[in-house]
Input
Amino acid sequence: MSSTFFTEPPHWHWLVILYFFLGGIAGGTYFLAVLIDLFGRVMDRPLGRLGHLVVFPIVIVCGLLLIVDLGRPERFWHMLVQSETWRPMFKAYSPMSIGAWGLLGFGFFAFLSFLGAIGDAERSRWPRFRVLRPPRVLGTVVGIVGSIFALFIAGYTGVLLAVTNRPIWSDTPLLGLTFLVSSASTSAALLILLGWRRRWAATGVHVLARFDSLVLIFELIALVALVVSLGNIARVWLNAWGALLVLGVIVAGILIPLALNSRPRILGSLTVPAAAILVLVGGFLLRVVIVLSSEAV
Amino acid sequence: MAEPMGFFTDTTVCIGCKACEVACKEWNQLPATNGGRNTLSGDSYDNTRRLDGMHWRHVKFIEQFAPDRTDGRWLLMSDVCKHCVQAGCLEVCPTGAIFRTEFDTVVIQSDVCNGCRDCIGACPFGVIDINPVSGTAQKCTLCYDRLRGGLEPACSKACPTDSINFGTIRELRAMADKRVGQLQTAGEKRAYLYGADEKMLGGLNSFFLLVDRPEIYGLPPDPKIPSRNLKPGAFWSVVGAVAVGLMGIISFRNRGGRDV
Output
């Protein structure tokens, strides 16, 4: 029996799962919005702007979820500042410590890009903030550095789980990769839903759907690799959690959306949003299965 | 730094009296379970069941009986935090609440801990849990306050059979080696030390003499530090990020200005 089965669960439940899901979406959406800004066409820029407008509020919600989940929420700042010496509290080998600083940094860049998106509106009251959006030099720098933070936020939660001694979590090095890829697919799905039925976003949505299909194939490969890397430990999924992983995450969250994206007219105008909603549900269930199946051991 | 201190627990002389549990609770003013309501396990004399934020000592009652009850034995073991030299809890703690003392023991500062619970999943032995009264993670401190005052920890002081021995690690290892030799000479060939050398997490400052496999006592056979997964986990995440980034660039760039 693996030594990980002699440990105790950390009681990370729905607030943590929601953070993993929303944090992944925030990171992925920011990254995609910057990609649209830097590599998309001019007509797609409103879609990127929409992305930046939703990311910052989601980051605020993420921070609140993490604070509320603490046993002593009023001490949340102990993650960042040493309570006795007032020096910065940072451990390069603790994913939660790195994550706390990463979320702070990402929040900063998400805020700058949020301001940039507000300034970039057609009749904005704060046009001076346009400087914070590409193709301006400052906006490009903000977008690129912010994207590094965004990708970190999208994936570090999987590494955080791996750097424990719990069954499943610490029995594979692939959770960070799986969460990151899932963040990309769910973020593309969110942007697709945001752009759906907006005439100006039609071409952007089409490209996002194509990107989502590519990422979903990658996610499927990552999931298979994750199960293989678990070896005998994967037996703990021979129960309802395993069924949820196969039916909810793989079939409903990956295979059906892939089929819908390859037959865009099968449900008429509802095909694209149906696929996007299923991807979002699958991404959420992935985190539910990963977190709660180990908590249940 | 003072010489490393710790516990050597000889499970072969434990009689399951639970004086250590009581002494620990008394000294550390730990709350009673369920507000003091009497709750029995119903299937064992062990009603504590596990180590957690309110139980820093736990006497395990392992009952090994043949199905027909003609043969059997009790294995009794007073379990506690192992005060690992390479401590997983200390590694992951993001607030600095967990620190290594001048006695080479591992202590959680309750006034610094914010209850993130990362240390609970990181501990290879399932020792730590949240104390519902303080809302913080708690575990054995090896009576850090008593040690600073030149006193012996409460549990070893109370142990009536010297199953729990306190002292410097050097002295304890010598004592443990002698005891293993004594038992093996007397015919108990299964006697061995668990966690006494550096092979297990750099050495456990609370180590045990056992007479069966570790799993029988609810101890992991091969405990590891959580940071073993940091580099490979980060590497594969970066691989994923690069792959997703390339897919994104290709998806948007491939349009090449034509309508889709």
Chain A touches chain B through 72 residues (CB under 8 Å). The radius of gyration of chain A is 20 Å.
